[in-house]
Write a structure and sequence with these properties.
By secondary structure, the protein is of the alpha+beta class. Helices cover 24% and strands 27% of the residues. Helix 3 packs across helix 6. The radius of gyration is 21 Å and the shape is elongated. The termini are far apart. It binds zinc ion.
Length: 286
């Protein structure tokens, strides 16, 4: 369920009951399942927001003021809005019964097969003009966020003395760009991931961020409606990845631009893929 879907289906609903079906689904809520239920009972859901891997609902609660229900999707978590009489999902972990102003009832369900995901109710804090839950306070906006400020990110990124791919994966600079998207964006921008950020021009950094946004947009469009389609790694990724990747996972296959074989290098316990002709590696400096 994307943020937009939540806005349509659950905002301005009041929480009538809270049912936690698996303790692991609330392990990030350190005060426990009962406390989470008490916090949410009677709360009115007023906003749905997303940043990086995080999705949260703002909830006006009677006793604790405005709080955030932070949803960690983990590897397999999903939010579903269901009629109250819909059959239970096999991996149902949390269920909120909701009621709108007209008294119509519905359910917001958290379904998570592998239980890496979960919910926590967190206070909100003001960070650079936005109210954010604590776990999200250090996460930068992603390139598809309407308030994403490329000028500012370009400046911050060039100040980091690091390699450009590491900077793209740094959630405190820009969020939402995983390993696959970084490799694809770097290929499109014709930059090697090991290029030092401080030696890139503003134009080059703008370009790679714009390419990352384009890759993410294409993946979202191809992946349909699931919020986490953007963030999953190769497993479970949509058909987009089979059809549209230029370099990622394509060792020894022809670069779609120049025909040169793609090379794989190890990178932070993972891999980087690039075209040695289109993306020459930086020379080592003494
Ligand atoms: Zn090439």
């Amino acid at each position: 369920m994307v943020r937009r879907g939540l806005v349509e289906h659950v905002l301005e609903h009041v929480v009538d009951s809270v049912e936690v079906r698996h303790p692991r689904a609330v392990r990030r809520h350190v005060a426990g399942a009962d406390d989470l239920a008490i916090a949410l009972l009677g709360a009115r859901l007023v906003q749905a927001e997303r940043r990086g891997k995080y999705l949260w609902l703002q909830a006006d609660t009677a006793k604790r003021g405005r709080q955030a229900v932070v949803v960690h999707l983990g590897m397999s978590g999903q939010l579903r809005v269901q009629p109250v009489d819909a059959p239970e999902e096999k991996h149902l972990r949390i269920r909120l019964r909701l009621r709108d102003g007209a008294g119509t009832r519905t359910e917001l369900r958290f379904v998570d097969q592998r239980t890496f995901g979960g919910w926590a109710v967190e206070p909100l804090q003001l960070v650079e003009g936005s109210w954010l839950p604590r776990p999200v306070a250090h996460i930068a906006r992603d390139p598809l966020d309407p308030a994403f400020d490329p000028e500012r990110v370009v400046t911050a990124l060039r100040r980091r003395r690091t390699e450009v791919k590491r900077a793209l994966l740094d959630q405190t600079l820009v969020s939402g760009i995983g390993n696959i998207y970084a490799d694809e964006a770097l290929w499109r921008a014709q930059l090697h991931g090991r290029r030092p950020t401080e030696r890139l021009t503003r134009v080059q950094v703008h370009r790679v961020l714009a390419e990352a946004a384009a890759v993410m947009t294409e993946a979202l469009a191809a992946g349909g409606t699931s919020f986490d389609a953007l963030y999953v790694n190769v497993n479970g990724a949509s058909g987009y990845f089979d059809r549209s990747l230029a370099v990622y996972g394509r060792t020894d296959r022809a670069c779609p631009r120049c025909g040169n074989p793609i090379v794989r290098e190890s990178f932070m316990n993972r891999s980087s893929f690039s075209c040695p002709r289109c993306q020459p590696a930086p020379r080592l400096r003494r």
